[in-house]
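User: I need a structural model of ATP-binding cassette domain-containing protein from Albidovulum salinarum for a docking pre-check later this week. Nothing fancy, just the predicted structure tokens so I can convert them on my end. Input:
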Amino acid sequence: MIEFENVAHGYGGGPLLSEVTLSLAPGSFHFLTGPSGAGKSTFLKLCYGELAPVAGRIALFGQELDAMSRDDIARLRQRVGVVHQDCQFLDHLPIADNVALPLTVSGRDADPTELRELIAWVGLTGRLKSLPPALSGGERQRAALARAVIMSPDVLLADEPTGNLDWEMSLRLLALLVELNRMGKTIVVATHDLNLIRAAKAQVSARVLRIKDRRLLLAGAEL
Ligand SMILES: Nc1ncnc2c1ncn2[C@@H]1O[C@H](COP(=O)(O)OP(=O)(O)OP(=O)(O)O)[C@@H](O)[C@H]1O
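Assistant: Understood. Predicted structure tokens for ATP-binding cassette domain-containing protein:
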């Protein structure tokens, strides 16, 4: 589903990631850990073609990204939902419209019933008409998750989705991610939160990738 072969990336000041080789199977659940600045967000951006590697090859859904045009990559990206670290919204649009935005910008209308069901799934029915600035951190993260899955992606990448949330809200978000995984979605979650990883491992067969010294390693069973 996502394959890296000997991938390296850096922003000009020397390599940040190197010799990254891995294959994420369809339906798998991975956490991605590592110190701040290790390259977790960078790895996620490589996964969905936002960044190109300086060496090596990346294939998404069996297609080599470096052989594709920007338009083709953009089309492939519709099969990948992303929850960004800073989850930005259009502040003048109600939450329902923000969640529907990926459909709207691709020229489609959201089915009103499906949109309401999706927003109910993340527990934001009472917030349908609220503007983003009125939402709490946990509500914003859940709205961002709804927006990330509205195109029914095969893969969901989440960058520190519980970064600013209390434990109860983190577990609520985790439950949604676990549910998506049980529906067959491939999930990658970048996080510092080892308790979150432990809680997930009690529910799904999640594996842990760790960035250490520029390399991406499959962590052992210590977590
Ligand atoms: N566009 C960019 N240009 C130059 N340097 C960048 C760019 N984006 C990230 N970096 C640098 O690359 C390094 C890795 O950043 P990245 O955001 O991938 O790390 P991270 O592991 O996700 O960090 P955190 O846990 O703090 O979110 C950092 O030193 C960062 O400053």
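Before docking, keep this in mind: The chain has one domain: 2-218.
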